[in-house]
Amino acid sequence: MGELLTGGLGMFLLRQDSRNGINNKRREAGFAKSFEQCFGARLAHGDTIAEVLEHTDPEGPESVKMDLMSGLFGQKVLRGDRLCGKYYPVAVDATGVVSFDHRHCPHCLTRTSKNGATTYFHYVLEAKLVTRDGLCLSLASEWIENPAGEFDKQDCERKAFTRLAAKLKRNYPRLPVCILADGLYPYGGAFETCEGYGWKYIFVLKDSTLKSVQEDLVLPRRRDPKKSGYHVRDGWRVACEYRFENGLEYKKSKISWIECGETRTRDMPREKRPEKQKDGETHRFVYVTNFEVDRDNVMELSAGGRLRWKIENEGFNTQKRGGYQLGHKFCRTSLNGLKNYYTLLQMAHAINQFVERDGEVREQLSCHSKETVKNIWGMLVSYMIFARDPEDLPDGNVGRIQPAPA
Length: 406
Prior knowledge:
The protein is of the alpha+beta class. The protein is built from 14 helices and 10 strands.
């Protein structure tokens, strides 16, 4: 079983775009031997791996993934990325995995277009640890799926969040968490769930959300900012104005409000600025939180709320377009297989993020201004195919570079 799961994991670690892709490499004797030397496991055929994953309970690989992350917390690897020196930022968001024009299984979600065409699809809700330097590590996954048989309403992200939160608390009971989420989450149930587990939260607040709270914010929005500052980022001078208000009541919860207004100007003489570059545009970032906000922590909390974008950019976008092929139908006939391949993808992405931060990989990336991680991984696979072990050569010197004569 270890070899079979390692084979599935290796497909994603090496950024192979399909089961057929890894099978084509497996036909090369050099690649199969290199794989065994690297991972300590023989590489099984992709169809064999798929058949096993179809009959494996998804909770098994999911528990392995969570044990992997628990090990990182136990080694205190990520302590420097905590908010306010205590809380690990955990972004929560859902993404589509696969879609079909026919019913894939009894648990498919459905959507019917205006012309009457029905799409069947599977969504998953993710809780990912996100950091300022771009790490995006899956802590737990919860599938958004309909129950088998008859039901009144389809499953949704808010229902799945209740299940996901329970899974997080069960598997990381002592982990101090700050939940980061988009504008779907400012509602009473999410507030109470986080507070019940002793978690902090920072949620995006839309102007159309929490009507009773919006009425209390009319005056605070008109007042002068309580803190101002600026920083330089990517050639821009970014001036920030912060407003905040504590003690707002919503149902059973007391919440705080943060607004950050950013005005960007090009940090260069006006005559040298690009013609299409616009200066003076102001962008508002608004959040609700259960932190007590003050002048000392408002900048950190506002920046923490914006970490939520990491789950979409460094998370889902990388997995869909960075060689992991999230969205590819690795297993068309089994929901169990689909879930297990997804879990292996999350594990491989987590491992590769640490590998990409290794000194040797960074050195390779710095050798050329347009070198990419994807190209380095392609060269790695080529090396695994064509490199020969010196022990396999008839003469120990054959194939080696000979020193020049004196």
